[in-house]
Amino acid sequence: MRKTLKEIAEIIDGEVVGDARIVITGVSGIKEAHKGDITFLANPKYFPLIDKTCASAVITSRDIRAVPKPIIRTDNPSLAFAKVISSFAAPLKITHPRGIHPTAILGKNVTLGKDVAIGAYTVIEDEVSIGNNTIIYAGCFIGHHTEIGSDTLIYPRVSIRERITIGKRVIIHSGTVVGSDGFGFVAIDGLHHKIPQTGTVQVGDDVEIGANVTIDRARFDKTVIGSGTKIDNLVQIAHNVVIGENSIIVAQVGISGSTIIGKGVTIAGQAGLAGHITVGDGAIVAAKAGVTKSVPPNTTVSGYPAKPHALAKRVNACIQNLPRLYNTIAELKRKIEELEKRIKE
Question: What's the pTM?
Answer without folding.
Answer: 0.83
